[in-house]
Amino acid sequence: MSKENKTALVTGGSKGIGYGVSKTLLQMGYKVAVTSRSLDAAEKAAEKLSGHGEVIGLEADVRSFDSQKKAVDKLLDKWGQLDVLVANAGIGNFGSVEDLTVEEWKDTIDTNLTGVFFSIKASVDALKKSEGYIITISSLAGTNFFAGGAAYNASKFGVTGFTQAVMLDLRDKGVKVSTIMPGSVATYFNDHEPSEADAWKIQIEDIGELVGDLLKMNPRTLPSKIEVRPSKPPKK
């Protein structure tokens, strides 16, 4: 099947890593659906990306299985198949366990971990039909704990382990599964505003390039867990 007929769903694709990955996929010839909790944000991102290929913006909240299923169904209704899922949507709530609220804990786990489960669960039947690829975006915080990271560490440690188990569940079904674990990335994450001061960080197009490299990999080979970090971080 030609790459021009292949499709991808990118959660949290309206900005940051998801936007960078979506742009790369479009440049590779994939048709791409970008999702966001905000339909306006998703559609604005799709409009900006439209010069690179066929793209649609969909409203979807990864905290809701029904919402994710509706997004997948809309993609299938439009294009007939799903070949790549990039489970990227995530948030960051940081602080000591003494200060972390129950709501912050729940929102972090529901978005970063349960949201990945819902995204995969909603997509798995279509991906088995296409013998597609699942890529989750975890973090180096999924293997390195730090003070103030109770909720975020828990969610990303969970994503890393969950993705590895899913890889074993699905590889005999023809579905490839990888997790990418970035360090510092120049994004809008946690209300950060990217600037020239972030030039040393991983850029969103770098993660997009990495996703592209995974999709180009010979089918006999599966890089299942990839750590990626800035090559020259500032000295502390």
Automatic annotation (TrEMBL):
GO biological process: monocarboxylic acid metabolic process
Domain Ketoreductase: 6-186
InterPro entries assigned to the protein according to its UniProt record, in alphabetical order: KR_dom, NAD(P)-bd_dom_sf, Sc_DH/Rdtase_CS, SDR, SDR_fam
NCBIfam families referenced in this protein's UniProt entry, alphabetically: PRK07326.1 (NF005594)
Protein family (similarity comment): Belongs to the short-chain dehydrogenases/reductases (SDR) family.
Listed name of the protein: Ketoreductase domain-containing protein
Organism: Christiangramia echinicola
Source lineage: Bacteria, Pseudomonadati, Bacteroidota, Flavobacteriia, Flavobacteriales
